[in-house]
Design a protein that fits this description.
Blueprint: H1 54-57, E1 97-101, H2 132-162, H3 169-193, H4 200-219, H5 233-247, H6 251-269, H7 278-343, H8 352-370, E2 384-385, H9 386-394, E3 402-405, E4 413-414, H10 416-437, E5 442-448, E6 452-459, H11 473-485, E7 489-495, E8 499-507, E9 533-534
Parallel strand pairs: 3-5
Antiparallel strand pairs: 1-7, 1-9, 2-4, 5-6, 6-8, 7-8
């Protein structure tokens, strides 16, 4: 299913064959490439492309001649058309390199920079309803509002009882009304804006709690100062400490404010209450500090969870967008290559019938993509034989001088995921041969033993030097990466003016163990980076 948030608009740009990396408007990039590109690796110049999504790999049937291929137009440009003269007779005298991949974790997707997302600080009020952090702030605000609503009711009840006992009833009523007004405003602010008090109202809320705690010494008789509802500032101060712990900038600030409140509550009435009430007075003061620290710790923990949830969500969205972009890139890579050759007046007439058939197949595949109808095999499918995979993959390349020798491995059965990846890889290689190799002969060979199968695609074209020419999207992603993800091994051997050979190897279904290992003389893979290993010139190709 394509995410609704991902906009992928195909844009053909002149003579192109690659794909841009911009998820917003992924177009197609590259240049036609000069004649004499490198055989099986015509995409060698464009590198560093994102990886292959599993859905994209399975978006075309094996039977399509272009179901897995893409002509790469950003190929090596150092060579020229193959001359009519003989090739060098000594292979060891030419520059030679081998590249080996095995079943390693994919590394082509670029790291998601989730940390670049700005997150509001402790005192900030993020947009409500957009992030987990905003939801956390909203939850804290509603909890504070519910508690303050209870405190407001306590103020009303305490004032009703205390106004008749107060020595200054007017001042007592004025202070109660002011506290009640700020509390009601806090509750309404949360209900209307879903945020705590902002700006000066925060300090007004703290101020009325401090003033009320101290003023009760002169407004109420001593017997009403400890443990009585008429002394409502005690409950208000407890709630104010909790609310302040949400918006104060740090744990130290919350602790400092609560300690000052505790100190004021003790000093204000210590000398006017009975000695037996002193323990209760200290216990009440300790509640301010306890509430402030508890709420602050909980708030910090809740915010950290929300921030991590937001970062994980953004990373997941970016990963889905990257996977969808990969799917799109692989899909249009094939079509743009074929269209470019059809539109090029230099394309020989003998190639056009095959290209037209492939263009028709590509149009069907693109329509399926736009309608989200993928050519995935039904569950429980019995697999496809290696002979059929190779026959389907090579069917659209009647213009190439193919020499097929697949009888020895034709009966091997591959499950559909591997069959799709292998068919696409073979077609990609043959597209590159057509585009760049200028080969006299292209050999396709298949073989197997009791546990393993092997396919070799080799041309006697112009070749190239992998040590100096980076691999591009088609070979690195549609061949190397796709095969590696499916548990197959792919080895590349290329030499300028000699040709290019690609060996693909896998385990026969129903047997245990990995595919045959590369030659022990081959250089080991890079240190955990999942990248292919390039052998030095003159090394023997692993078998």
């Amino acid at each position: 299913m394509k995410p609704a948030s991902t906009a992928l608009t195909p844009v053909l740009v002149g003579d192109t064959g690659g794909v841009t990396a911009n998820p917003a408007t992924p177009g197609v990039r590259g240049s036609p490439g000069q004649p004499g590109g490198s055989g099986l690796t015509g995409d060698a110049r464009s590198s560093g492309e994102p990886g292959l999504s599993a859905r994209a790999r399975s978006s075309a049937p094996v039977g399509s001649a272009v179901g897995s291929s893409a002509t790469d137009f950003a190929g090596p440009e150092s060579g020229g058309p193959k001359s009519g003269g003989p090739k060098p007779g000594n292979p060891d005298s030419a520059s030679r390199a081998a590249l080996t991949t095995g079943p390693e974790p994919p590394t082509s997707l670029e790291p998601v920079q989730a940390s670049s997302r700005q997150t509001p600080g402790p005192g900030a009020q993020p947009s409500i309803g957009l992030t987990a952090r905003a939801d956390a702030e909203q939850g804290l605000a509603f909890v504070g509002a519910i508690l303050r609503a209870g405190i407001s009711l306590e103020i009303v009840i305490g004032t009703y009882s205390g106004v008749g006992l107060s020595s200054h009833p007017a001042a007592y009523l004025a202070l109660s009304g002011l506290a009640l007004g700020i509390s009601v405003w806090l509750v309404l602010s949360v209900l209307r804006r879903r945020t705590m008090l902002t700006g000066g109202w925060r300090y007004a809320d703290l101020g009325i709690a401090f003033v009320g705690t101290v003023a009760m010494r002169w407004l109420l008789p001593p017997d009403q100062l400890v443990g009585q509802w008429t002394n409502w500032p005690g409950g208000l101060a407890t709630n104010s400490m909790a609310v302040a712990a949400v918006w104060l900038p740090s744990m130290a600030a919350s602790l400092s404010v609560s300690l000052v409140m505790a100190f004021c509550s003790i000093v204000a009435v210590y000398d006017v209450v009975q000695p037996h009430q002193h323990p209760t007075l200290f216990a009440n003061a300790l509640i301010y500090v306890t509430f402030a620290l508890t709420v602050r710790i909980f708030t910090t923990y809740l915010r950290s969870i929300a921030i991590r949830a937001d970062e994980s969500h953004q990373a997941a969205v970016a990963a889905v967008q990257a996977m969808e972009l990969d799917r799109y890139r692989i899909l249009v890579h094939d079509a743009t290559g074929i269209l470019r050759q059809l539109g090029d007046h230099r394309t020989p007439a003998v190639l056009r019938p095959a290209l037209q058939r492939q263009a028709l197949a590509e149009s069907v595949r693109l329509r399926n993509y736009l309608s989200d109808k993928l050519a995935n095999p039904p569950a429980g499918h019995g697999g496809t034989t290696l002979g059929r995979i190779l026959g389907d993959a090579t069917a659209g390349f009647t213009d190439l001088p193919l020499e097929m020798s697949v009888d020895l491995g034709a009966g091997v059965v591959l499950e559909e995921t591997r069959a799709l990846a292998l068919g696409r890889a073979i077609s990609t290689l043959l597209h590159n041969v057509r585009r760049h190799a200028h080969a006299d002969t292209v050999f396709v060979h298949a073989d197997c033993d009791a546990r393993h199968w092997e396919v070799v695609v080799r041309d006697d074209g112009v070749g190239f030097d992998p040590l100096s020419t980076p691999l591009g999207f088609g070979l690195s992603v549609q061949v190397m990466h796709a095969l590696r993800e499916c548990g197959m091994v792919c080895r590349l051997d290329a030499r300028p003016d000699v040709g290019t050979s690609v060996t693909i190897e896998g385990t026969i279904e129903g047997t245990t163990g990995a595919a045959r290992q590369a030659d022990p003389t081959a250089s080991p893979p890079g240190p955990g980076d999942g990248t292919p290993t390039v052998k030095a010139a003159g090394d023997r190709l692993a078998t």
